Amino acid sequence: MLGFHFTKFDPNQQGKSRFEQLLDLFMQLLTYTSGDVSEALNWLTQLDKEYQLTDEEYGLGDFIEELKNKGYIDENRQNGEIKITPKTEQGIRKRSLEEIFGKLKKTKTGDHHTYKPGLGDEINPETRPYQFGDMLEQIDFVSSIRNAQINHGIDQLQLLEDDLEIKETDFKSQTSTVLMIDISHSMILYGEDRITPAKKVAMALSELITTKYPKDTLDIVVFGNDAWPIEIKDIPYLQVGPYHTNTVAGLQLAMDILRRRKNPNKQIFMITDGKPTCLKIGKKYYKNSFGLDRKIVNRCINLAAQCKKIKIPITTFMIATDPYLQRFVTEFTEMNHGKAFFASLDKLGAFIFKDFESGKHKTVY
């Protein structure tokens, strides 16, 4: 017999099923556990015990079985190890993107606007006289026919080259981006979990670039004592190591990668707590974790200036609130003429936006 099943309305769930509600929470926990499914499920069990997330009709066992059936987790039958699938990895990135930047639809073209007119997808209201080499589809026929009527009269209507007007379009450029992620020990120091919000920002940025700007290139670099490249799919599994912060090594690797990219537009996104503490000189490491070492800071500032010289802007996402660390980021950003976003740990979505080129300040929510 067909019928309707009525349940209590919860405005916060927006009509989501019990599985979808638990999946949202499970995805969040995976970010905190660096992709460890067993630990995330243990945390979910504790939360269920305290807040009664499930009931007799739908338990955690049902949720786990549905995760397997829908391809979110995969269990190794030989050793019983459970891992997340690429579907879950992308799901975590999408949720980070929605949390920080809002929902964005995938497009088929790049969408970086410039101030220069040229061939592109977006029509500019301005028109100009026809020039040799302009394409047929650029002709504004309404304006051109009007010009022909004015210049030659209605009785003998003729359309000459001097009558033609061209519709301007805004040129859209392709960009090569390197995303740098700090995985030094200071990202979890003093009881503050800075790496989790850093991963959220990294996943949001990577999803933003790969969905909204599919023709762009994106490379990801992590840096501790040294720097090395990783894949986008590896971001959820990132963990902090017993490392110092070699920001110089990260910047040097990012610049090397961008030199090999053919796109004329290049940029660096850097996610860090803002405190460089390490340099590699030859085969030895120069380290100083006590305050800001001027020898290390000067190398960072010099690289910021080098990036400015070769027109590579650096956008810094600062996951710390220490005033002296923010002063360093400010000095670093001013030298590069880049941008800085300062985020508190409890309000990752709210950034104080500083654009040192235009001198404008605003808060983005």
Question: Would you write up a description of this structure?
Answer:
By secondary structure, the chain is an alpha/beta fold. It has three domains: 18-84; 122-170, no CATH class; 174-364, von Willebrand factor, type A domain (Rossmann fold, 3-Layer(aba) Sandwich), CATH 3.40.50. 35% of the residues lie in helices and 25% in strands. It is built from nine helices and 14 strands. The protein has helices at 18-32, 37-51, 60-69, 86-100, 141-152, 195-212, 247-259, 294-309, 323-336; strands at 73-75, 82-84, 112-129, 165-173, 175-182, 217-223, 227-230, 265-272, 278-281, 284-287, 314-318, 339-344, 347-355, 360-364. Strands 7-6-5-8-11-12-13-14 form an eight-stranded mixed beta sheet, with helices on both faces. α6 links the parallel β5 (175-182) and β6. α1 packs across α2 (37-51), α1 (18-32) packs across α4 (86-100) and α8 packs parallel to α9 (323-336). The longest helix is centred in the middle third of the chain and has 18 residues, at 195-212. The radius of gyration is 26 Å and the shape is flat.
Outline:
It contains 9 helices and 14 strands.
Spans where pLDDT lies below 50 across 5 or more residues? 103-108, 112-122, 349-365
In spatial order, strands of the major sheet run 7-6-5-8-11-12-13-14
Structural class: alpha/beta
**What's the architecture of the largest domain in CATH terms?**
3-Layer(aba) Sandwich
CATH class of the largest domain: Alpha Beta
